[in-house]
Structures are given as structure tokens and as C-alpha cells.
Write a structure and sequence with these properties.
The protein is an alpha/beta fold. Helix content is 32%, strand content 11%. α3 links the parallel β1 and β2 (106-108). The relative contact order is 0.12. Its EC number is 1.2.7.1.
Amino acid sequence: MTEITQSTQTEIPAREQVKFYQVGSFAVGNRLADLQWRSLQSDPNRKNSLTSGHRACQGCGEALGARYAIDTATTAAKGKMVAINATGCLEVFSTPYPETAWTIPWMHSLFGNAAAVAAGAAAGLKAMGKDDIRVVAQGGDGGTVDIGMACLSGMFERNDDVLFICYDNEAYMNTGVQRSGATPAAARTATTQPVGEHPGNVFTQGKDMPRIAMAHEIPYVATATVADLRDLEYKVQKAMTYRGARYLHVLVPCPLGWGSNSNLTVTLARLAIQTGLFPVYEAENGEITSVTKIRRPAPVEAYLKPQRRFAHVFKGPDSREVLARIQAIADRNIKRYGLIEMDSLDEDVRERILSAPDDPAGRFAAALPGRQVMDVSNEPETD
């Protein structure tokens, strides 16, 4: 069995200095913290880049992610920043013509060319001698992982001076919850198999966009979620200290598309981290430099059950097999990225993680004759 990768914990100065005052909770006593260690969102004088009046759904993770990220980027750029926005939920709910909820210079691009428009904006500003004005591009997973991938790869290859932020809600939510390249295995959407032996998104499809960005060896790549504000702010601030292409992939739960309660957005984002299904890390020049460690490993069922898009997983005759395959995906992430310290694991959990197969999604097996699917149950066969 392969050992768990040894990874460095991401050290965030603001978080290291703040004490948690409720044992077992994630609440922080901001009023008791020194001003320099408070989060940007706790500052009553902060810049509200995305202000009131937008039409996002209640509990929208993308609205949270965009506000947190762009507020931080604007502050880091000292107000000298322009945002390029791909078509999608964020654009539609924030700018119903002729109104806008943005208080910064903002430009709407097509669904697939936000990276190209941003690269042009950065080049134009540089040509005018205004390279002190920073450029941030943003879009959903559809406009990033799928439709916009060619333009984004070109931006990475040229190392254009743009920070691209993907708000990943794992489907095309704006147009009716269609499957995207970021839709997880077994999740049900409007365009995945509704019934049959294996409903929901098939296991052999999808893209890992942060790793694709890392393959371009750009200066900075990071993942984050709306569940850890200090981590997200830290990574945006750090990204803004670089010049060249940078990529930030933020998980933003969608109550409408995920079929979850609107008050569970942050909880689900946190469970995505704690299960290992969404590894949180940062990388520089193509190499992972630090990860967010999991303090309390959670089973994937805790993350899947509150979401109606996974309801069929718990009802089908092969539900145990499907859950085992999803758990194996999480365990492989834990092992690959070193998300847990080995000496902190219970023996049975350690054994399960170390036994995680190298192909839990079945991508390699699908290429074999007969489309073989590996057994990930780790249970002995019985007659």
C-alpha cells in the first residue's frame, strides 16, 4: 500500500493568531482580535464590491464567493482594479440591464472568452502605462472548465497578468442545472441519466481544472471554499502579490442546483473539505506547496445526504457500491494530497485510506475491453 503524501499545512497568519473561543465550533471572537488579524469582511469600512440589490438565490454560494474574493482583490489592488465577468449566474443576477450591483469597473464578456478579454485588458492597460491597474477575470465552472477552457489555457500559456477566479457550483445552474465538466460522479442534473441502472453523472467523465492549471506551470494556483473565509482571503491576497497568470478555484454550493437547504451552503462547503472530496491546497510554479489539513475526517454520506441531487444514491440496489466508489475518490484525494496526518487517524480509517485504489472513478478501467469496473468495497467475497 502507498503511504499518505506528506504535505505542509497552509499557514495563514491571521488564522494562526486568532483563538477559537468555543470548543468544537468554528466561531471566532473577532471583537477580541487585534485589528491586523481580523478578516477583511469584519471591517465595517471595507469596500463592498458586490453590494445590495443583486438577485441571487437565498443562500447562493457564488454571491458569497464573489463578494469575499473581489472585496479582497480590490483592497489588495488599492482600488485600482477592473473585473471581467463571463456570462453565467454571477453576471445575470448582478447586472440585469440597466441596473448593476457592482461598485467597481466591471465588464461583461461572452460565456467562453472572459480569459481572452481579461488578457486584452491587461495588455491594453500596460500599453497605456497603467500596469498599476490590476485585472481579475471570473466565471462559473461552465465558462471555465468547459466553454472557456481554450481561452483560459491560452492565457496560462502566455502567462498574461490576470487572476482568473472560477466559482464552481458543479453545473450550468443559470440555464437549468445542466451537467458540466465539473459535475461530480453520480450527481443528478437535467442532462444526466434520470433512471436506469446507473442514474446521475457517470464516473468516467469530468475535469480537474486546478491540476490542469498546474500543468501550465503558472506562478500560482489555489483551491478554496466559502466555508473558510480566512483561507479564501489569504489566497486572493497572495495571488495579487504575483504578476503573471494566476488561478483560483472556489467551491460555491448552489441550493437550487444541489437541492439543498439555503442555510446549509457553508456547512456543505465545509463537509466537502472534511470528506476529502474537495481538496484545498495551493501550488506555485506547478508544484503543490501547502494543503488545508482535515481535522475531523467525515464520511462522504454526511456530505451527500443533504443534497437531493444524490438522493438516488441511497435508494438504488447498488447504493453500497456507488457510495464505496465515491468514498474511494475522497480517500484517494486524502492520500494524494496528504490531507490528514497519519498519526492522527484511527486504525480502520488509516487502513481504508491507504487501500484507496488509484482509479476510483473508473477512467482507466473504462478503456479496457468490456469496460471493467474495479471493486472498491474492500470487502471479502462470499458465496
